[in-house]
Amino acid sequence: MSALRKSAVTPTEQDPRWAAVVAKDPRADGSFYYAVKTTGVYCRPSCAARLANPRNVSFHATPRDAEAAGFRACKRCKPAGPSRAAAQSATIAWACRMIESREDSPSTAALAKTVGLSPFHFHRLFKAATGLTPKAYAQAHRAREVRARLPRSASVTAAAFDAGFNASSRFYEKSAEILGMKPGDYRRGGTGAQIRFALAECSLGAILVAASEKGICAISLGDDPEALLRELEERFPKAQLIGGDATFESTVAKVIAFVERPGVGLDLPLDVQGTAFQERVWRALRKIPAGRRVTYAELAAKIGAPAAVRAVASACAANAIAVAIPCHRVVRKGGALSGYRWGVARKRVLLDRESAKKKA
Asked: For the whole prediction, is pTM greater than 0.90?
């Protein structure tokens, strides 16, 4: 760049906040405000107004600072009030509470009308914020409710109705998907269900592999084998835990082989038990190839819920099937390793092995 060109760049353009104004970045809203001398107004960074000449722009930390400098609030972006994103979040939070408090499932059109939005716009905002459609959110809420009510209800039917299922037949149609076992067995804390398990050692320490009739329901890593077994017992307090036979030992061997040599692959049936949103995240995790790392934001975008980054992180933390559902491949922005259910050190080893295999 020539000296003449450098001199043409204004101090405003050199300020990193100007890039947010040019991009109309809503993520910068609330962190600063900009004012325009020629119009006498101040705005949020995301304001949709025509881009001002940077020579006429000044930055302010708060609306009060901008008003003290003689500027008035923009009528378009209303910078003195809550941000658009904050207002939308409050609207969606209210809609979620409404869904959870109703015995029936209100339609998308009814919810949208209540909050003063078109059904299409409301549907789009709701999915961006929660990662689910309003209908799927209501279904996931009913599933959580029935899982919580079954152990303490007088009957399966009572639990289904109390959770919002308007017909017990509709609940029984979805019961295997929701519970992973028969409703009566779940209500009795897993009584009647058989969980095969085996404890072994691998280079990462102790490993526990457990499976129901549907497939692998737990792969845990740790330092204390007894602690891993207690955790399994707490998850299935009344299930019949059966030590693995020779056939199951071969399954454990496949898991250990995958831990030691990621390139061998792991193709085993899984018995995943989570909310609809968690299962969407876990399906997306299984599509990430070995040696590849993604951020929580990238994973949220992959499932069509770019605003649900925190919910994605929570779903990763709730995963109970290590390596087969590879939540270790998710990192923070910039590549930093965040918390891992089985220890960040193990996460680092798994990633290093996959990276080495990819280079080889």
From this structure: no
